[in-house]
Amino acid sequence: MPTGGSDPVREAARLLAERRNAVVLTGAGISVESGIPSFRGSQGMWAKYDPMEYATLHAFMQSPRKVWEMLSEMVSVCGGAAPNAAHASLAALEEMGVVRAVITQNVDGLHQAAGSRRVIEYHGSMEELICVHCWKRYLTRERWTPGAVPLCDCDEILKPNVVLFGEPIPWLAQEVAEEEARTCGVLMVIGTSAQVSPACDIPRLAKDAGAAVVEINPEPTSLTASVTDIHLRGSASGVLRLLLKELSLDDETPSSESSGH
Ligand code: OAD
After folding, report:
1. Whole-prediction pTM value?
2. pLDDT per residue as tens, the chain (261 positions)
3. Ligand 1 — pocket residues by CB below 6 A?
4. Where are the alpha helices (DSSP H) in the chain?
């Protein structure tokens, strides 16, 4: 069961400050405050589009024009979104040397836009299109126009370079993510329902290797009772703001105490 003492934010900040090698796993929840809908729940993408019809590789190969109805919405929503305070807080934590990498299931590019430098895109990125026939790649912004289905020079329909159900995780992203998980001191899990494998296995991997697992989510998830050590209940932006504040106080305390005044 998650603990965290009487002040779980302070406890999480203490762990982050002591270990200074946190890795973060993010999901759609961190981008909700940027106006990008998450996947599950009544307002999620999968309430509008059945993932079996719209989000599998098989569906794309069978009916790419139909799948592009959903993809067009995702490209335009992601393309118009800006990072929010939660993305900015993670970039600040990396700058402070507290966070060393972000593993994201999101395909919106908002961590990089906020200034995070080490971002592992576990499910690919909407910023690139790939031809599933000749494998030529293009920048989405150079090839896609609203309402149109983008074509390769070979005339086949392009697919965003994101992982659809039935596709493997890009091997390098998977290798690096697992290595980060096995060697971090704290794994922060933010805004994911942790229902999609293998991403949802990353927290357990980190925990089995000795990391503390801190979860930031307004709701409990499949991890909360079994893997999470500290559940910080709330929005990503609100909780990260409190953590940053606590860490800034921590930074000030040792120097004044050690000077003996
Ligand atoms: P989900 O939609 O499954 O879960 C979003 C999570 O974010 C939920 O647990 C919410 O409680 C939480 N949440 C909502 N608002 C939040 C906020 N402001 N701050 C923090 N958390 C908040 O999205 P993912 O877990 O990311 O994969 O979904 C994982 C994968 O399933 C996606 O990458 C996608 C999808 O199918 C593929 O398409 C392969």
Report:
1. 0.94
2. 555 567 999 999 999 999 989 999 999 999 999 999 999 989 899 999 999 999 999 999 999 999 999 999 999 999 999 999 999 999 999 999 999 999 999 999 999 999 999 999 999 999 999 999 999 999 999 999 998 999 999 999 999 999 999 999 999 999 999 999 999 999 999 999 999 999 999 999 999 999 999 999 999 999 999 999 999 999 999 999 999 999 987 666 554 443 333
3. 27-30, 32-33, 38-40, 44, 55, 105, 123, 163, 165, 191-193, 195-196, 216-219, 221, 235-236
4. 8-19, 45-48, 51-54, 57-62, 64-79, 85-95, 110-114, 140-143, 171-183, 202-208, 236-258
